[in-house]
Amino acid sequence: MKTETFNINSLVRPSVMALTPYASARDEFKDLKRDMVFLDANENPFNNGVNRYPDPQQTTVKQTLSTLKKIPTDQILLGNGSDEVLDLIIRAFCEPEKDTIITLPPTYGMYGVLANVNNVKNQEISLTIRFQPDEDAILNASDPAAKILFICSPNNPTGNRLDAHKIELILNNFKGLVVIDEAYIDFSKQQSWSQRLAEFPNLIVTQTLSKAYAMAGIRLGICYASAAIIAILNKIKPPYNVNDLTQAKALEQLSNLQDVKTQIALIVSQREQLISSLKSLNFVSEVYPSDANFVLVKVDNATKRYHQLIKEGIVIRNRTTQHLCDNCLRFTIGTPEENTLLLNVLKRLP
Ligand SMILES: *Cc1c(COP(=O)(O)O)cnc(C)c1O
User: Fold this and answer.
1) How many CA within 13 A on the CB side of residue 41?
2) 221 - beta bridge partners?
3) Which of the 8 DSSP states describes residue 12?
4) DSSP structural state of residue 245
5) Ligand 1 mean position to 46 CA, how many Å?
6) Mutation probe of ligand 1 site: the residue of 85, 152, 161, 211 with most atoms within 8 A of C-beta
7) For residues 19 and 91, is the Cβ–Cβ distance under 8 A?
8) pLDDT score, position 1
9) Could you tell me the distance, in angstroms and rounded to a whole number, from the CA of residue 256 to the centre of ligand 1?
10) How far, in Å, from the CA of 110 to the mean position of ligand 1?
11) In this predicted model, what pLDDT tens digit does every residue of 327-340 receive, in sequence order?
12) For the segment 178-205, what is each residue's pLDDT rounded down to a tens digit?
């Protein structure tokens, strides 16, 4: 969408436009000084490190991300995992029983679940057999009710990145918002779309600390978008959605990126090794290209292989019921030791 023709206010649910957000005791947190006496939030006054409510705007984490990603803090929203962010986006823009989202299966199942939770129809438009978006079908489905298109790149469960030219064409012509879920971006050669927010007022990019940053347990999801979109999402987010322990852990990890970078490089090189080894197994018929920390593999009988691995104490994901994923298994890249063990077990399977 061109900046001149795009009006975010016409996409927001009228009830969200009209609402006054909950004003929490700590909404002016950034102006508060540590040595003040806090008798405003009914907290227990005895310090144990977590007796106070967390910063509702996560100012320090956002500033750190802002510096790292070169995106202003007013274009960042944080959530309790990116799953919360995705839910906020649907709730802000989709009127139940009226508006719709578009998803591109096979893809991340949570978009459809969140649509169901919000009583919003999920229109599915299949990826092509090479797992790329069908841009004509998507743009033909672009109507005023189709508020949000979810694109996952690199895509889960297929592992590939989606063609940047196709995505750009879609961004320029789709009438609603385009969410690009970049949960796996750090394992990819693809440049993040977060660096192109200024060009596309309808673009929302989500990322997470759950995968490459090794922090699935703290639940921290990130949303990058125009300041106007972020302001709308801020209106409806729960005031204290990211807790203090999470903010502290995230800061610690974001200020020590060397370890993360080393781990990512190792995972990527292990991925390439695993891909070439998997190709030599006689029950494997296809190993799909991956820009993520997992690989999708087509085998002779996915359900049989899945159960054989479980018996050996190895848990993988059986994706055979997913659209276009007949007899496909998804392997997450483990440590070098785990990957060697996996391969040894696979080689011995009867
Ligand atoms: C794992 C995953 C997420 C979930 O992220 P959280 O931040 O842990 O909620 C989001 N999108 C995709 C495509 C994923 O695979």
Assistant:
1) 20
2) 79, 208
3) S
4) H
5) 37
6) 211
7) no
8) 63
9) 22
10) 8
11) 999 999 999 999 99
12) 999 999 999 999 999 999 999 999 999 9
